[in-house]
Amino acid sequence: MGERYSVLRDMSGVRTASPLESARAGGPVPPQAPAAGSEPHVEVAELSKHELRDVSRDPEVRAVAPVMPTALIQPIEDAADGRAEAEAAAAAATWGVKAVGADVTTRTGADTIVAVLDTGIDSAHPAFTGVTLIQEDFSGSGVGDKQGHGTHCAGTIFGRAVEGTRIGVAPGVTRALIGKVLADDGSGDTEALLRGLEWALHQGAQVISMSLGFDFPGMVQRLTDMGRQPRFATSLALEAYRANLRLFDALMRMVAARSAVGPGTVVVAAAGNESERQNGPDFEIAVSLPAAAEGVIAVGALAQSPTGNGLVVAPFSNTFPQISAPGVGVVSARNGGGLRSLSGTSMATPHVAGVAALWWEEVMRSPLPASASTVVARLLAGAVVSPLASGVDVADRGVGLVRAP
User: Fold this and answer.
1) Please, what's the b/e burial string for 187-217 (b: 16 or more CB within 10 A of its CB; e: otherwise)?
2) Least confident piece of the model among 8-22, 173-187, 198-212
3) Where is the Peptidase S8/S53 domain (predicted)?
4) Which of 64, 173, 287, 387 has minimal CB crowding within 10 Å?
5) Are the C-beta atoms of residues 55 and 19 closer than 8 Å to each other?
6) In whole angstroms, what is the distance from residue 388 CA to residue 304 CA?
């Protein structure tokens, strides 16, 4: 029996170059650029080695990779949860909303379509009153959010005020795509993620937010459970991770090519929470997939300095993000109603997704080309470093704190 593989196809036209051409003798060949108006399509199939070879030679196929497990980037529950909620209520807006300037901008994210690929959403929460939520389940556990992670993230992007507290960066968003790519226990796989991405693209998402990561240890464990020796399991998992990185790079090139015939899509993902900066620089880990893929905006997390000297990098935040946002003590929608405070790059990512929606509105109402590339350029150029504490390394915070138009 073969292994399960994700197969990425471009349905816009047949390429003439083989996807394996760069591996042939005679030196590397630059990858062929996707055709304008690329139409990504994901298939999953069990393939033997022989079948895998045949599929990879199909001129429509852009990349092939083994299906890998994914997981939500586990947030850190705040010990001072109630205090953070009380402080947010007293201030009328969360510190994150204020830090990114969403409380003083004239933009609200109106007419922007945002997709959240996560654990689903509590559609009955008052934070989402007036938002048309298009839900699709790719996890096999049904729509809705029993975990709470997706609800919290969505609340930060476009949530309405709850109990007098503003939690949403872009509360003018009225249409949101909710792709449930992680099951109720927070686990998933690349099949669900890729199908969710394909769905969001075809539904016209202008911003896609992903607070999740590839579960490399889970892949090693799965292979070990299947009887592989640990060193072989680790090697095979590394091979699968590398193949998936190439697949996501190919997918993001197709996403970029779509902007040649339409507005395109800004894709944002969490850098990951695996670092332990409090233990020293030897305990820092770089951005993981899917944030590590070409063209994805990787987001790091910032915290308020206890001394009040500016924003600092959160101890858990992975290094080499592209941009940073508030990610500690973030108050947003709680599953079942009310508010809760969480910390993580999962919480920083929706701040950037929300600001991206604000920039979409800004660009659409300006003479500038209304394209994803314009929005990304403005988003990155608009970041600031002045609110950061002195000594924060560029490798840890990227271009700086994301800011609204």
Assistant:
1) bbbbbbbbbbbbbbbeeebbbbbbbbbbbbe
2) 8-22
3) 109-364
4) 387
5) no
6) 9
Q: Tell me the backbone φ, ψ of residue 336, rounded to 5 degrees.
A: 90, -5
The model carries a pTM of 0.90
CA contacts within 13 A on the Cβ side of 381: 8
Which residues are part of the catalytic machinery? Answer: 118, 149, 346
Q: Give CA torsion, residues 6, 266, 324, 65, to 10 deg.
A: 10
- pLDDT tens track for 288-310: 899 999 999 999 999 998 877 89
Q: For residue 212, give the H/E element and its range.
A: strand 212-214
Nearest Cα neighbor of 213 from 270, 275, 298, 257 is: 270
**Other CB atoms closer than 10 Å to residue 320's CB: what's the count?**
17
Count of residues for the chain?
Answer: 405
Question: What tokens appear for 274 in the block?
Answer: 């695996």
- Token pair 């796989």 in the structure block, residue: 189
* Nearest residue to 88 via CA among 169, 163, 171: 163
Closest CA to 88 of 103, 108, 74: 103
Contact present, 257 and 373 (Cβ < 8 Å) = no
Residue 243 confidence (pLDDT):
94
pLDDT classification of 23: cutoffs 50, 70, 90? very low
Tell me the DSSP string of 71-128: EE-PPEEPTTHHHHHHHHHHHSB-HHHHHTTTTT-S---TT-EEEEEES---TTSGGG
Question: By C-alpha distance, which of 110, 94, 142 is closest to 333?
Answer: 94
Q: For 26-63, b where at least 16 C-beta lie within 10 A, e where not — what string?
A: eeeeeeeebbeebbbbbebeebeeeebeebbeeebbbb
Q: Which of 246, 244, 290 is nearest to 6 (CA)?
A: 244
Q: Which residue has the tokens 């929470």?
A: 273
What are residue 172's phi and psi, to 5 degrees? -85, -5
Distinct helix (H) and strand (E) counts, the chain: 10, 17
- Could you report the per-residue pLDDT of 354-367, keeping only the tens digit for each? 999 999 999 999 99
DSSP states of 15-29 as a string? -SS-TTGGGSSSS--
DSSP code at position 318: P
* Sign of the C-alpha dihedral computed for residues 235, 236, 241 and 244 taken in this order: positive
**Is residue 219 within 8 Å of residue 279, measured between CB atoms?**
no
